[in-house]
Amino acid sequence: MNRRIPVRKRLLVRLLVASVLIAVCSVAATAWLAVATTTRALREEQGQVLAEDMDVLARLSGYAATHADWRGVDRTVRNLAERTGRRIALTTTDRTVVADSAAPGTPLPPRAAATVDPLRVDTYTERGAQRAGVDPRAVGPYRITAAERAKLDKLAVVRRNCFARNGYDTSVVRAPSGRPVVTDVDGPVAGGAVPEECADGQLNTPTPTEDKALDDLSARIASCLGKRGVTHAPRALGVDVTGLGIVPRFFAGKPAAHDEPEGTAAARRCTAEARRAQLDPYVAPVAELFLGGGATTAVRFDMSPANKAKVAGAAGLVLAVTVVVSAVVATRLVRPLRALTAAAQQPPERHVRVPVTTRDETGVLAAAFNELTERRERLEAQRKAMVSDIAHELRSPLTNIRGWLEVTRDGVVDPDPALLASLHEEALVLQRVIDDLQDLAAADAGTLRLHREPVRADELLGQVAAAHQVAADTAGVTVRTTAEGTPWLDADPVRMRQALGNLVSNALRHTPSGGTVTLSARSDGDDVVLEVADTGTGIAPEDLPHVFERFWRAEKSRSRRTGGSGLGLPIVRQLTAAHGGTAEAGGAPGTGAVFTLRLPAGEPPG
């Protein structure tokens, strides 16, 4: 029955709506991404320029801190200008050019970008920042000699090894004065609390060069304090060993309790003035730094009307193309789906196929639908044939049992031993058919239980031959067993005897008196090959593909009593497959038949 699908729920409409939404979102996302990317790029460029400016200032401040004048700075200025791509000019405070990367006579920018004064501006301690104070690279008279450096280096190695023994991972860095400093990633080792065995009092002791400079600084401070009338000023001076600078140790912390606040403040001012006066001969004069391009402006993104029109036009074009392409693709996609729907709605007994017109996903789906239809048709035919065969198999013994019971009830015949034996035989035939069907059902459902254990193949063949010896003698057939070596199987012995017994029973039925049935076993690589060969009528080539089918017989006229239930060979194949092996049939008319079971080899016990 055809049902009308609402327009809003049709696949074509949904695809079109989805495509339109995708196109709109794509255009909007692209525009937003372009704006965001451009804005971010401009801001990153602005930040990069600012970082370059700070780096230029830090480099020139370092030059001033380590040179008594500006002679030779031209090369540094040119190198910085080439690296940054900007103009760099250095002048005195009265705008006398000291060095300039631009051509002579080029006007200076209206304003200086920064002042280079290592005695008042620190650009070294914190990268990218300007702090008030003396640049740590301005060491002047505190620079230690080579001999003092070598001695302190040895002490630093000893100190570092001591810290390592106490669980601290440290490194030795070089202060601008040349003094080695033992430190870790967090700054002062152990927060400044040095283990007792590492506190040797030697590494942090000022060298003669530093003592001389500190004495000079103390004299300058005392002179300054005397002029200010301070008589009780702090006097403890020393080298700051927790950082990289030259700082009076006392003034790095809080004043002592006995110090007067006025004296402490005066001491701080005098110390700062004395340090600048002491270092002034060793640093370059104050200079002004000019950078080409001037100050940067705030980043602002604005789209012109022309650009807006371009964006709108591109969005409209993309939208139109998306709609057209989506309509074409959706139409081609829906057509085979409609054919599949129509075929699926047909009655099952018609087994309708659909044409495969494309090689895309819908074509693959159509081919899979046709294959499913064919399998369903085959399974339906097999089901009907199996139901008919099962009914036929059960009807014959049940009819015989019923007939004999009725005539016995009516008093036509007496229930003598011969009659009871006949009824018992019919019941056995019925039981055999039911048992075979139960085994096949368990194998098909995957619930067939196997109790594996190491089994010798030659002993297995001997057991099967002994079990069928009486039937073989009755039929006048000789049963023989042969084995190459002693191959072992990891198998269920009961199920393997059942499988081989079915093959031997089948061979005895098809072998005339005087014939031979041979059971053999041999190893073949990682497999064990079991064969049951007879000298009977053989199997026609056209019948070989069907011998393992259920209820199939080469001779249709055979009865169930002489030809078996028609389930013996299918059970053999299922039991072999459950053990991970394969079953094959061979032979030709007049030469006998050969059934081969190939099973995985096992290991002997113990």
Question: What does this entry look like structurally?
Answer:
It is a single chain. The protein is of the alpha+beta class and 606 residues long. The chain folds into four domains: 1-113 and 302-345, no CATH class; 140-282, no CATH class; 347-446, Helix Hairpins, CATH 1.10.287; 449-600, Histidine kinase-like ATPase, C-terminal domain (Heat Shock Protein 90, 2-Layer Sandwich). 49% of the residues lie in helices and 12% in strands. It has 13 helices and 15 strands. The protein has helices spanning 11-66, 73-84, 146-165, 208-228, 261-279, 305-344, 361-409, 417-445, 457-467, 469-475, 493-510, 560-563, 568-578, and strands at 88-91, 97-100, 114-116, 121-122, 131-132, 171-174, 180-183, 287-291, 453-456, 478-483, 488-491, 516-524, 527-534, 582-588, 592-600. The strands form five sheets. A five-stranded mixed sheet has the order 10-12-13-15-14. It has a four-stranded antiparallel sheet with strand order 2-1-8-3, covered by helices on one side. A two-stranded antiparallel ribbon has the order 4-5. Helix 11 (493-510) runs antiparallel to helix 13 (568-578). The two termini are 69 Å apart. 24% of the residues are buried. The model is unreliable at 241-246, 248-260, 294-301 and 557-563 (pLDDT under 50).
